[in-house]
Design goal:
By secondary structure, the protein is an alpha/beta fold. The chain has one domain: Dehydroquinase, class II (Rossmann fold, 3-Layer(aba) Sandwich), CATH 3.40.50. The chain contains five helices and five strands; from the N terminus they run E-H-H-E-H-E-H-E-E-H. Helix 4 links the parallel strand 3 and strand 4. Helix 2 packs parallel to helix 5 and helix 3 packs parallel to helix 4. The longest helix has 21 residues.
């Protein structure tokens, strides 16, 4: 059985590889997405990726995911720290969400230390650069395997 995963990228992540390279590195969003799709194929995960700088579009994607995907990997970007609308959208769906951040938000500026979205996710992975996304996929693979074992 194929596991469907939606990877959501929030604001400014389309600028990866160009923006603040000392913080985010040179890896582009396209590179990250291609790597996730390839890794997903290897692990039996069907990965679809979506990026938006618009909060409402991300909310729409979360709503559309219910009944269509099994897991969501979500980097809300700066919305992490203040978007109660995204927090409520995550809480309103019956799809496990893993929050990811390329940088360690807890070691950066104080305004980044709080995530309003993390309390309604099943977990948070931070600080490993682009690898944060792959670690989330690895967690999904493990969770999906456990779910199948429990059903069988």
């Amino acid at each position: 059985m194929m596991v469907n995963v939606l990877v959501l990228h929030g604001p400014n992540l389309n600028r990866l590889g160009k923006r603040e390279q000392a913080v985010y590195g040179r890896t582009t969003l396209e590179d990250i997405n291609a790597g996730l799709i390839k890794k997903g194929e290897e692990w039996g995960l069907r990965v679809a990726c979506y990026q938006s700088n618009i909060e409402g579009e991300l909310i729409d994607q979360l709503h559309l995911a219910e009944g269509n995907v099994d897991y969501i990997v979500f980097n809300p970007g700066a919305y992490t720290h203040y978007s109660y609308a995204l927090r409520d959208a995550i809480a309103a769906i019956d799809v496990p969400v893993i929050e990811v951040h390329m940088t360690n938000i807890h070691a950066r500026e104080s305004f980044r230390h709080t995530s309003v979205t993390a309390p309604v996710t099943c977990g948070q992975i931070v600080g490993f650069g682009a690898l944060s996304y792959e670690l989330a996929l690895a967690a999904i693979r493990e969770l999906a395997n456990r779910n199948m074992e429990n059903k069988g």
